[in-house]
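Q: what does this look like with guanosine-5'-diphosphate bound?
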Amino acid sequence: MSNRTLAILKPDCVRKNLIGNVIAKINEAGFKIKAMKMTHLTKESAAGFYEIHKHQPWFNDLISYMTSGPCVPIALEKDNAVADFRKLIGATDPSKADEGTIRKLYAKDKTENIVHGSDSDENAAIEISHFFSRKELLENYNN
Ligand code: GDP
Ligand code: MG
């Protein structure tokens, strides 16, 4: 699993019609799409996904944002996927993100920042299984 990461095109990405732009960047950077779906998170699902942040003062804002519309989780594959994807998306706060990164290009602020990327191989495995069954991933295995 160490060559996989989970991306989510967040609700602001979908609302702004940026799904295509962001997927183009992801493909240009050499990532393969292993599984993808559009889904509208429930509060329970979003809170479970972001459980690590439940004590943050901004947790409720994060859950409201992530449940404000549909999002697009994508399981990605590439050598060094987790680190390379974090590099491609840039810092959490787009004003601090490097030039050319997805968040620098498209994100509004530290909450509405267009895209999620897993932060470790361990979390990538947990996060991929939050959205995709083993069957959904294996069906794409040789793509
Ligand atoms: P990431 O790994 O770069 O996405 O950042 P974190 O894991 O630190 O935070 C998860 C998500 O919570 C971020 O992507 C933002 O959508 C949101 N978030 C992070 N920091 C803040 C903050 O200070 N205020 C608010 N309102 N949302 C935040
Ligand atoms: Mg994080």
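The beta strands are 4-9, 32-36, 72-77, 115-117. The chain has one domain: 3-137.
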